[in-house]
Amino acid sequence: MRIEEDVKLDFKDVLIRPKRSTLASRKDVDIKRQFTFKWSGEKFDGVPIVAANMDGVGTFAMAKAFEENNHGLSVAITKHYGIDAIKDYYKKHGGEHVWYSIGVSETDEEKLKVFMNSKVQQNGKGVTKICIDVANGYTEQFVEYVRRIRAEYPHLTIMAGNVVTGEMVEELILSGADIVKVGIGPGSVCTTRKMTGVGYPQLSAIIECADAAHGLGGLVCSDGGCTSPGDIAKAFGAGADFVMLGGMLAGHDQSEMDVVETGGKKYVTFYGMSSDTAMEKHAGGVAEYRASEGKTVKVPYRGDVMATLQDILGGVRSACTYVGARRLKELSKRTTFIRVSQQLNTVFGDS
Ligand code: 5GP
Would you say the CB of residue 127 lies under 6 angstroms from ligand 1? Predict the structure, then answer.
């Protein structure tokens, strides 16, 4: 057994220090990023925020809203849509705003193959980006899977994860991932840390993983733990190239979920993708050998996601103004984090 004594930080443990700036207004800030992905060669030009591939978040309705919003945000579509619904969406909207999500099951791989051989794909409207998503990205089988998908589909942009340490980020990038998804345990409806004791404070995970990825020409997507626009700004400030959001986008019209009224207030159900609720819905129950690592909560109904997007984009823009970053790309270079004392931490937690 070993103990690492280095301090590891979460979003709540830091604030961004303001810096002298020549920016007069937040409207002067460009929060789009331009990337050419390492392996696929695909070009990206947009706000690098991705809706998580979760029920109630990674929906086609969300993708349509993001398309209308016109800032180039994207959605990782939940893998539980049927192939016909997926074809239908791509036929009408193309693949610019969506990540086709898969796990590592044979069924997922077969479904992707069917889609890649479909007319929609051949007509040039199909999948360009995929998200290979597993709870634990540390297995040899996962690395092998990423390698196989890269060999089979050299032109697809691959986002793969999740991991939280530099050496595994390097291994995944060298195996064919363009972007590595970073985060184990920070999610709003995740119980992994409680159930297993495993995890890594998210801000430090981003800092260390971004350093490893950038050294190889790869990118990272911070996944989980953002509860406010300020957390998103901190994730970008720490070096995240993309930020994935679940809970912050749940509870909207675009969630494709029922709105329930109790005590005069409206709510929408939101749950982790390995919660009992998700497993009942998609797999007919929790398998005997595993425990649920997600919870089910009720989030207040928040109407159209457009208003939330405005808040998010406004917050990130404003953070850039405070440190004098004219473009989102400059934010991490201009970020100095200040550690917040335990006492202040509590105060911020309450506000
Ligand atoms: P949030 O933005 O809500 O804090 O985090 C979203 C992320 O939580 C997702 O993108 C995914 O990585 C993770 N997540 C979603 N469902 C579950 C779950 O049931 N268990 C765990 N451990 N993580 C989950």
Answer: no
